[in-house]
Design a protein that fits this description.
Chain lengths: 105, 105
DNA sequence: TATTCATATGTATATCCGTTCATATGAATA
DNA sequence: TATTCATATGAACGGATATACATATGAATA
């Protein structure tokens, strides 16, 4: 896995930073966490995160652009799900990090 | 590892979002990547990321607050290193994510 | 203890970003 | 094809934030 993390091109660094940035907003993170359980349409997502349809859609557009989610149509609704399993792994890892920190204090 | 990512308290969600946010800035990410290779003093870090001593120190303060780095003194210098191995794992995971995406296109 | 040198901190500013409100889009249904 | 309903998009506003500049801090050395 970890092969020379230090030697990473500028453009790749930018892209990775964007990835983290997208996960670094509470609203977007809650969307991702919600989707880690099951695929959901926009309406349900916005209910889940307690945010307007518009705000939710704006954030989903960003998540799409960062390849963190994918969309499929089901009837009138668009159903969102996590793009791949790496996202889930990173979420899980971040939670473990937090947990251990708490145990130390 | 992945136990019910959906059911996470609001405060924990905030804390995790902060973690990602800290890694989501290009400058801070480059700092973390640099530290993944070896521990470094502030001067060397600022040279490495091509940024003023002040800007670097400001960002290091944020990374400290988020428990992503730790500091030890060596003579006159303060030596920074990654707080733990989770950070390294998350960095590595994010790079893999990017790589696979590229291969698909 | 006085001085120095590495690092931290305060303030200001320009830019970025998340949300809201209003409206457009367009696939699915009648 | 006309209509409807879910979602996307555009513009704008307020708050957050990264950097620069000036200065403070404080441990290490003389």
């Amino acid at each position: 896995m970890s092969h020379r993390l230090e030697e990473i091109s500028e453009s790749e660094c930018q892209r990775i930073a964007l990835l983290f940035k997208m996960m670094g907003d509470p609203t977007r993170l809650r969307i991702l966490l919600a989707l880690s359980g099951s695929s959901l349409c926009v309406m349900h997502i916005s209910e889940r995160v307690g945010m307007s349809q518009s705000a939710t859609s704006h954030q989903l557009a960003l998540l799409r652009k960062a390849d963190l989610v994918r969309v499929t149509r089901s009837g009138k609704s668009l159903v969102y799900s996590l793009a791949d399993d790496h996202v889930r792994q990173m979420l899980a890892l971040s939670i473990v990090h937090g947990k251990e920190k708490r145990d130390h204090e």
